[in-house]
């Protein structure tokens, strides 16, 4: 959850507060849909060697954080990212390396939840969710509303 501070502040600066909130809700929904679809596919595949990695009961905010990592790395324009200060990887590999590292360090985390987060981030980046996103006038109108002025102070 500590990753939310740098990720959220950078994305909020780029997108705006209301659009980021809307995007996070949209990502939560797309993560959940992908999670159910992939879990159903794996559950009905009798030859899958590690079904326990895919069939999990938990899904938390970390999937959305992985989506935000994908979004932020594509928007940042940098060539490489540091993985915990240990080594650098190309930006396009960064979310996938984090997925593997987290799974190796914490074996009880939801692999499928994080994977769906990465996939949702790519779905968002490729514009496949644009049909569900209102125009910029909608978001700027809400952010300029007088009833939200107390939140901005």
Automatic annotation (TrEMBL):
* TM regions (residue ranges): 20-41, 53-73, 93-124
Q: How does it sit in the membrane?
A: Multi-pass membrane protein
Give the location in the cell.
Membrane
- Which residues belong to the signal peptide in this entry? none
The answer to whether the entry has keyword ATP-binding is no
A GO MF term? serine-type endopeptidase activity
Residue span, Peptidase S54 rhomboid domain: 1-129
InterPro entries tied to this protein: Peptidase_S54_rhomboid_dom, Rhomboid-like_sf
What GO CC terms are in its UniProt record?
A: membrane
User: Which keywords, in A-to-Z order, does the entry hold?
Assistant: Membrane, Transmembrane, Transmembrane helix
Q: Which Pfam families match?
A: Rhomboid
The entry's family comment says: Belongs to the peptidase S54 family.
Which PANTHER family does the record associate with it?
DER1-LIKE PROTEIN, DERLIN (PTHR11009)
**What is the name attached to this protein's record?**
Peptidase S54 rhomboid domain-containing protein
What is the species of this protein? Saponaria officinalis (Common soapwort)
